[in-house]
């Protein structure tokens, strides 16, 4: 199991009070499966991703990534854990305009202390996996929106993470390109064996998930009736998981 949130509560200051962003959340995401997270704006989806990414420390509960419990880790240790085991795909890919698609990926290896030249082979392999083998030398302004998003996905996988966190990857794409990006994330989840959490506002993309959870006022629950989605893992190779909260 690569991601385990257990009884997590997160609050933020709100004047003289505190606002509850996550309320006793428990979520287990096994490797090789994709869990989709849906819910209205302000429901706690972004807070859930921030806690899973170890960017925010919850008030209570535990977070484990790839078997490592993050409670008590120093800032440097958390940074190292994110660099080695967590890949993040943002709503906007935030590519560096001066770098080619290949160099965007090689930069990730450099940040991890590896030689960019030595990482060239893996970078080219990932670009091929996302269908951009022939765009390796292109800079962001020479790529379409969907292609830039695919570079962002490949970049997130560069350091071989076991946990992939994806935040609204289709928000700037039309439906057809958005569906292609979600299909790509689903395929790479299976092939790379990542535990993937996908936050999306577009419920038409939820069918690709092994599991769907709804966030409402910081709590996890079933998708609303009539949403056309269902809760519960579709087992991949006999893998199962549970969700409470």
Give the topology string: H per helix, E per strand. Answer: EEEHEEHEHHHEHEEEE
Structural Rg = 18 Å
CATH superfamily: P-loop containing nucleotide triphosphate hydrolases
**Any guess at the CATH architecture?**
3-Layer(aba) Sandwich
Arrangement of strands in the largest sheet: 6-7-8-3-9-10
Strand content: 25-35%
Rounded average pLDDT: 86
- The count of strands amounts to 11
Shape: globular
Secondary-structure content class: alpha/beta
- The oligomerization state is single chain
User: Main beta sheet: strand number and arrangement?
Assistant: 6 strands, mixed
Q: What is the CATH C level class, in words?
A: Alpha Beta
Measured distance between first and last alpha carbons: 19 Å
Number of domains: 1
- Specify the helix fraction band: 25-40%
What is the CATH topology?
Rossmann fold
Count of helix runs: 6
Low-confidence stretches: 226-245
Question: Could you write a compact summary of the structure shown?
Answer:
With 245 residues, this protein is an alpha/beta fold. Helix content is 29%, strand content 26%. It has 6 helices and 11 strands.
Descriptive terms for the model:
11 strands, alpha/beta, 245 residues, five-stranded antiparallel sheet, single chain, six-stranded mixed sheet, Rossmann fold
